[in-house]
Amino acid sequence: MLSIYNTLTRTKEEFKPINPPNVKMYVCGPTVYDYFHIGNARSFIMADIIRRYLEFKGYEVKYIMNLTDVDDRIIKKSISEKRDAKLVADDYSKAFFEDIQKLKIKPADVYPKATNHIEEIIDIIKKLEEKGFAYNIDGNVFYNVNKFPEYGKLSGKKIDELESGARIEINEEKKDPLDFALWKKAKVGEPYWESPWGKGRPGWHIECSAMSCKHLGETFDIHAGGNDLIFPHHENEIAQSEAATGKKFVNYWVHFGFLNINNEKMSKSLGNFFTARDILKIYSAEAVRLAFAQTHYAGPLNFSDELLASAEKGLEKLKNLAEKIEEEIKINRVDGIIPQLEFEKYKTNFEAAMDEDFNSPQACAVIFDFIRDVNRAIAENENINIKFYLSVKEFLRKTAEGVLGILDFSKASTQNDGALENDLIELLIKLRHDAKLEKNYALSDRIRNELKNIGIELQDSKSGTTYKKIKIKNVNILPPGEE
Ligand code: AMP
Ligand code: ZN
User: Fold this and answer.
1) Is 7 in the pocket of ligand 1 (CB under 6 A)?
2) Which of 108, 160, 249, 335 sits a CA distance of 20 to 30 A from 480?
């Protein structure tokens, strides 16, 4: 039985989807004004692990992640870069897709963009206005929080407590400091759309209410995002959606702890961040994922070089075993012994861990116990039947690769092919060297040119010849299901 800690009820609850085996899940995605940082990546990766685990359990997950592509920060960037806000958003959306692919994050079913949902956004605001939850002041439309008695139920605060809180925007026009913008009147030079309230653009919160409703319906199973979104973003989404539809918006609210640096939240505004793409130049995606999976999603995690270096080291054991498995599968020994290992026990333990509010650190521990026991069996026995390796692979494929994304079997076999590739290139370098000694320059040039044609460039120096791989064509990454 899977249980999930629900921010809304502040308890761990048994997970009961509305329409099993279907599960509908919405995750707040990036505001595309810059490359995302490794703190954002923590939220995206933990959401991905949850989604993959639901699929492991046999659920059919419809997974939506929005892109906020109209926002103050995008406009600010477009002014500083002196180019259209749309171009800024397009460029960083493209970068977002490249980076999540590198992080082995499974693509969402749809990545809705706010600017493609202006009509739906206007419809909800109109409904809120009709029902008396919204008021228009000179082209700015605000949500009236005092009309929604349950306001504060997600963050667990009462309206008057929230009002005395520091981080609310002061605006003379609003009836209450907690009221928030549904529609913002256009300022000179800003992107705008026509609306019943004049030219303007949507507020951030209403975008998620509109996009989640369009793609998942009025009530859906899971809504996730970082802790910073509980208030006001998710609180406001609930107020808007429930006031508009009269129905419960979301059954399970899941929130991710912050990735911190020196116990402070990693964020663009504090300047204490590393972009995910820079981190991936140093560490593998698997190491980043393992480092994150080894801490429970809800708690804080302190980011450091050591964290990733130690994950990279931990992965060695997993990679070595994966390579051994691939080698043995090639050898294909059909006789020999099959060591006794209780595969079911590890599977049960892995599932029990993840069933307990996605306890991925415990699930990682199960995988490392499994590796230790498999290695012991390999050390204690000679001539092991391929069936054993196939069972080991099956377990790791479903858990380490399938759910956690900390292993890539295709890399384990290409690493072997990589060694072979290296040997073959070295052999050609030697043959070219011999051809040169025999003054057969036609042949030596041919070897150099034909290698170059397939993306291998030879570099001669006094100490000998080395090679490097060069790009032979550009590969375009097409974002899946983008709207
Ligand atoms: P943003 O692009 O700022 O809207 O953030 C995208 C996602 O990353 C949201 O779900 C945020 O809650 C999350 N996020 C932002 N900073 C951090 C952090 N330091 N640690 C974990 N998640 C974060
Ligand atoms: Zn959102």
Assistant:
1) no
2) 249
Residue nearest to atom 12 of ligand 1 (CA): 226
Closest atom of ligand 1 to CA, residue 31: 2
CB of 302 within 6 A of ligand 1: the answer is: no
* Residue range 142-169: mean pLDDT, rounded: 84
Q: Hey, what CATH topology would domain 15-280 get?
A: Rossmann fold (3.40.50)
Looking at the CA of 210, which ligand is closest? 2
Domain locations along the chain? 15-280, 285-407, 412-469
Please tell me if the domain spanning 15-280 has the same topology as the one spanning 285-407. Answer: no
- Cβ of residue 40 lying under 6 Å from some atom of ligand 1: yes
From the CB of 203, is ligand 1 less than 6 Å away? no
Q: What is the DSSP letter of 319?
A: H
- Structural tokens at position 94: 């493209």
∠ Cα 27 12 311 (to 5°)? 60
Contacts of residue 22, Cβ cutoff 8 Å, sequence gap at least 6? 59, 60, 61, 62
Integer-rounded Cα Rg, in Å, for the chain is 27
Are the C-beta atoms of 429 and 465 separated by less than 8 Å? yes
User: Nearest ligand, CA of residue 209?
Assistant: 2
Look at ligand 1, atom 2, and give the residue with the nearest C-alpha. Answer: 30
The residue among 225, 19, 198 whose CA lies nearest residue 125 is: 198
Strands (E), 124-246: 134-137, 140-143, 180-185, 200-202, 220-226
Tens digit of each residue's pLDDT (9 = 90 or more) over 320-360: 999 999 999 999 999 999 999 999 999 999 999 999 999 99
CA of 28 to the centre of ligand 1 (A): 9
Architecture (CATH level 2) of domain 285-407: Orthogonal Bundle (1.10)
What pTM value is reported for the model?
Answer: 0.87
Give the C-alpha separation, 102 to 78, whole Å.
27
Q: Which atom of ligand 1 is nearest to the CA of 30?
A: 2
Per-residue pLDDT band for 418 (boundaries 50, 70, 90) equals low
- Cα-to-centroid distance, 152 and ligand 2 (Å): 17
> Do 236 and 125 touch, CB atoms closer than 8 A?
no
Higher per-residue pLDDT: 470 or 130: 130
Does any ligand 1 atom lie closer than 6 A to the CB of residue 314? no
Coil/strand/helix, residue 154: coil
The DSSP secondary-structure symbol of 269 reads T
Burial class of residue 217 in the structure, from the number of CB atoms within 10 Å of its CB (0-12 exposed, 13-18 middle, 19+ buried)? middle
Q: Is 132 exposed, middle or buried (0-12, 13-18, 19+ CB in 10 A)?
A: exposed
222 neighbors 252 (Cβ within 8 angstroms):
yes
Residues 6 or more apart in contact with residue 169 via CB below 8 angstroms: 177, 180
Distance 193 CA to ligand 2 centre (A): 21
Residue with tokens 């639901």: 54
Residue 243 near residue 15, CB atoms below 8 Å: no
